[in-house]
């Protein structure tokens, strides 16, 4: 299975379109968004400035892009092309394919997070303690597993032409509602109430707590854990269903 | 069971425990019965061709055999266990028509993956050499021609020491040289005591390579035996001659031992289970056949005759 994971990582890194969207795009978007706001303005009750807040948002967004879009479309395509069938004729255990997809996706999401951190530190003078950088990286990276599971689930739901619109719709909705593009604190109150339970919101909130200097809220961790169970459970169920009709 | 009358006798290599066992296997998709009450056993060292027109249930049978689908009823066993277990133990290598390849990787990387996943893998270079893909090792998989892709699939199916090799239309897209090389490798495998099962629509391949031919029709086995036995079943001989003057089709239909009749222009083509008697009766009708030829049937005609007969039998029911 290690060979499969390594190969999955290698081919993802070779894919220029993917590298552009998941690594460079979030970092570029970060520059655009954070320069339009005044550097010292605090946002809402977070006590954070735009460049700092957006760093977590865009790093989360970048990780989300790489694990969600990458996984969903590829799995759907590979199911269609019969590669999944071919793999099932090897000694690889049934869930090995899904595991390797999730693992390789999360490895590839690391450069996306690091790219945003680098741009923030170099271009926007974001300064944090060493423990904060380390735990931000860890939290954003670990949290991306939730969306890797969602990507697998989407990949097993749709095929062909349907998978791109479906994954895009979910992706944009999650990014926007979770406050990854615009701080959720600027939403109208009713939308804020909804956004609080969107997985991407909880995801970004983990990092923002660390930026303020606190440990992540248990509520956000719990929300993400519930979503992880739902997405992974759904992915496993869809995978088994697909196995039966293959 | 219709198959017992044509049980494989082969060259006596049918020994040991069966490699594949199908016992009264049924599979339907909606109202379509893809596999109907199928029972068969394959043995080590056998090279078996699975023949049948499109929609006869060849692919469904292979899917069931490989555990890619579960039967509605009946039992499928490989090496006395489930197909999934046999595959996990590395006993089965398979090349599917519907089996895709991983894209955006090099040929060599993909073959290495297959070797790493196999419990009893051969060295990567050896696998590539045997499949004839050493020269394209560094090419990207998604930039290959159809024939090259097919050879890569073959490499994946033979990455390790399998005891059963399953091939679905394996030589599609290969040129003649590649096809010959392919079958010589397969013969080696069979001689090493492995069972080889392949579905094909190239009847000459089945005729030349298989020592056992199973003909499927609408999910049922309608013939199971050596190529020679299948030909014998279909009506042994083919009679062709030209006639001058008026040809009475009705009179020709009355000929004894006739299994098929076709008239095109002046030429009459007959299949007969007793050619001597049929030819005798042609003269008996007062006809004077010119350019008379009597020959054995090719497997192709035999195949058509058998499937036509099965269709007629079903319609009559």
UniProtKB/TrEMBL annotation, chain A:
Membrane topology, from the record: Multi-pass membrane protein
Transmembrane segment boundaries: 18-36, 48-69, 105-124, 130-154, 166-184, 221-239
Residue ranges annotated for the ABC-2 type transporter transmembrane domain, each copy included: 52-233
Cellular compartments annotated: Membrane
Organism superkingdom: Bacteria
Cellular component terms per the entry's GO annotation: ATP-binding cassette (ABC) transporter complex
One example GO MF annotation: ABC-type transporter activity
Predominant location: membrane
Keywords: Antibiotic resistance, Membrane, Transmembrane, Transmembrane helix
Gene Ontology terms: biological process: response to antibiotic
Protein name: ABC-2 type transport system permease protein
Automatic annotation (TrEMBL), chain B:
Superkingdom, natural source: Bacteria
One family name in Pfam for this protein: ABC_tran
UniProt record, GO biological process: response to antibiotic
Main location: membrane
GO cellular component terms, semicolon-separated: plasma membrane
Family annotation (PANTHER family): ABC TRANSPORTER ATP-BINDING PROTEIN (PTHR42711:SF17)
Protein name: ABC-2 type transport system ATP-binding protein
